[in-house]
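TA notes, week 10

Several of you asked for a full example with nothing omitted. So below is the full record: structure tokens for the whole chain, then the designed sequence directly under it. When grading your own attempts, check the secondary structure regions first.
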């Protein structure tokens, strides 16, 4: 707040002459306090305290009120905290009025400090601000005894607006809410019509539609959105999490997703459809580092796109993808603990990404819907993204379908672009997308292109990036299938079945895996050649040759098979001879000599009991004898001896 004013600033104010020279003459006549003016032009400045009272009041009104800051929370300031909380919730118009009142009271205080009487100061300020003396005294009463830092909040008008409410039965309001807060999203007018029908039946008191509309706005927005649009819509009311790539480098973390083009394409087989491309994007630089396109999204497209990334740049450390059927299948991500897709079995093979040491991260799912904000690649599919670069290319004129059925162009389905032309344009537009400069990502800084940011970071971190070996290259270059090794150490693939059934493969190295499941990697275009066999945990077993069916009378094939059989038998005998160094008779020499059997009768202290004369059943042929037992009586011993002799004769 300034206390010194030049003659030019004072000219024309209340109580002042209209010209600069007249102000200077009056200052000399009345003896105003003055000083030399600093800055360009020089001259003199006059103190506010020496000016006429009405001029001081006018100058104080021009000045903004002294800044007032909210007091810090200290002991015994609970009421002050509540006061300022209420002030902050008031609209800006109320806050502006509070600032005007504060300015008026500060002007009164300043005039009094400059020597004016309080009554005179109040009169002057009231006249300048267009208020009555009683109003200013009432304002002073609002802040009497309060700290000056609280004046702004105390002077805020307390007008609450209309507080009277229309009469409304509770049951009617509950009925309206049950009609309005539904996923179908009916309008307030339709729900009000239903309310009137129910009110006529039950005798409820219902206000006007405008009152109902105001009451609806009192329901928290989060509740309205959750009840009418669902969890996914409510989640979008809150700010998304912002992440930085400052700690990453090129190819450290990639993310991938599929995009279905809005272009009709004529495929090589003559069919027409909209192709789908799977993109892999580097998260640090946002560069598209790999892609493959086909008529649908499937595992081979993702596998080959990842292979392109690894072949050209290296193996990334992390990858973020959706939990889709094509990406979350066992061949890509099998073995990942949190792969919530398909049934997870212990015998499932380890997927391509875990075998390569790539840590898989799934995007979050909210109420069954994917969270696109978790993947930067989603933004490349938005407005001005790859869809604009590719789908609306001039070469695709007449083949563009529009983003949705309601946005079809006038030349919809006039033609279909050839597959070769589409692939050529797609490759060219992706190069242009990566090469565009002035990107506003964190790594590009508004100057570089995605490609430049990637190359710069890649060169500085080459020593950190893993390169693939020949064995690892087979993992993504070849398709895979899990099969069971049969009893004859053969196995069959379900792909490429012909007139003679499934293709069978065999190898000597599979004998140890009979009855177990193994992973077969193969080239779909060369199913009659060798295939590579792995254990489920990714360890390499060896190669297996295709077993071709021979003609029924083909003797040359028979001779070749017998020769192979003889070689295997000979090799097996040699292996047995090398494994078993001594015969069973030679090994028996190491057994201890058996001890001679002791034929001494065994003495027993058990005596036969005597229970008196046994009673015979009438007609029984049992004869009492003291010397002959039952076995002797019935010839049991003779029977056993005869049967034993008969058995020995049969053996001979």
């Amino acid at each position: 707040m300034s206390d010194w004013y030049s003659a030019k600033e004072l000219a024309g104010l209340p109580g002042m002459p209209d010209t600069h020279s007249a102000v200077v003459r009056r200052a000399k006549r009345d003896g105003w306090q003055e000083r030399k003016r600093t800055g360009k032009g020089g001259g003199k400045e006059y103190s506010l305290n020496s000016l006429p009272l009405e001029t001081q009041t006018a100058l104080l009104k021009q000045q903004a009120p002294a800044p007032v800051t909210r007091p810090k929370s200290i002991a015994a300031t609970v009421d002050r905290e509540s006061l300022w909380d209420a002030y902050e919730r008031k609209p800006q118009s109320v806050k502006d009025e509070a600032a005007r009142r504060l300015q008026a009271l500060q002007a009164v205080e300043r005039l009094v400090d400059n020597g004016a009487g309080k009554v005179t100061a109040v009169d002057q300020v009231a006249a300048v601000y267009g208020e009555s003396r009683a109003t200013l005294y009432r304002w002073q009463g609002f802040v009497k005894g309060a700290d000056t830092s609280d004046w702004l909040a105390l002077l805020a008008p307390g007008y609450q607006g209309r507080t009277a409410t229309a009469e409304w039965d509770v049951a009617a309001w509950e009925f309206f809410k049950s009609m309005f807060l539904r996923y179908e999203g009916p309008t307030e007018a339709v729900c009000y019509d239903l309310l009137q029908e129910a009110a006529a039946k039950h005798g409820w008191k219902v206000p006007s539609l405008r009152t109902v509309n105001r009451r609806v706005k009192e329901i928290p927005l989060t509740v309205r959105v959750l009840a009418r649009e669902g969890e996914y819509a409510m989640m979008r009311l809150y700010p998304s999490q912002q992440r930085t790539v400052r700690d990453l480098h090129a190819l450290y973390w990639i993310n991938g997703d599929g995009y279905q083009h809005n272009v009709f394409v004529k495929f090589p087989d003559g069919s027409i459809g909209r192709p789908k491309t799977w993109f892999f994007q580097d998260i640090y630089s946002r560069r598209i580092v790999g892609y493959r396109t086909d008529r649908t999204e499937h595992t081979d497209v993702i596998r080959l796109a990842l292979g392109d990334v690894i072949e050209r740049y290296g193996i990334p450390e992390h990858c973020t993808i959706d939990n889709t059927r094509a990406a979350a299948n066992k061949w890509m991500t099998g073995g990942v603990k949190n792969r919530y897709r398909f049934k997870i079995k212990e015998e499932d093979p380890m997927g391509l990404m875990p075998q390569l040491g790539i840590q898989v991260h799934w995007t979050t799912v909210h109420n069954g819907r994917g969270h696109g904000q978790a993947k930067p690649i989603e933004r490349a599919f938005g407005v001005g993204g790859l869809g604009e670069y590719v789908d609306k290319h001039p070469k695709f004129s007449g083949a563009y379908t529009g983003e949705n059925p309601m946005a079809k162009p006038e030349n919809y389905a006039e033609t279909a672009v050839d597959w070769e032309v589409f692939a050529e344009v797609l490759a060219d537009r992706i190069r242009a997308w990566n090469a565009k400069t002035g990107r506003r990502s964190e790594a590009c800084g508004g100057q570089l292109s995605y490609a430049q940011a990637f190359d710069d970071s890649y060169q500085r971190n080459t020593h950190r990036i893993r390169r693939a070996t020949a064995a690892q290259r087979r993992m993504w270059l070849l398709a895979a299938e899990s099969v069971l090794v049969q009893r004859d150490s053969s196995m069959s693939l379900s792909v490429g079945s012909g007139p003679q059934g499934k293709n069978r493969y065999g190898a000597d190295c599979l004998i140890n895996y009979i009855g177990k499941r193994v992973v077969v990697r193969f080239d779909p275009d060369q199913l009659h050649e060798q295939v590579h066999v792995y254990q489920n945990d990714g360890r390499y077993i060896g190669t297996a040759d295709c077993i071709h069916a021979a003609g029924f009378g083909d003797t040359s094939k028979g001779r070749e098979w017998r020769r192979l059989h003889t070689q295997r038998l000979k090799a097996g005998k040699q292996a047995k001879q090398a494994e078993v160094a001594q015969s069973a008779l030679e090994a028996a020499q190491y057994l201890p000599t058996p001890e001679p059997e002791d034929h001494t009768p065994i003495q027993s202290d058990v005596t036969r009991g005597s229970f008196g004369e046994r009673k015979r059943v009438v007609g029984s042929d049992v004869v009492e004898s003291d010397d002959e037992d039952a076995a002797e009586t019935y010839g049991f011993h003779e029977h056993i001896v005869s049967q034993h002799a008969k058995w020995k004769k049969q053996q001979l």
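The chain has a mean pLDDT of 79. Use that as a sanity check on your answer.
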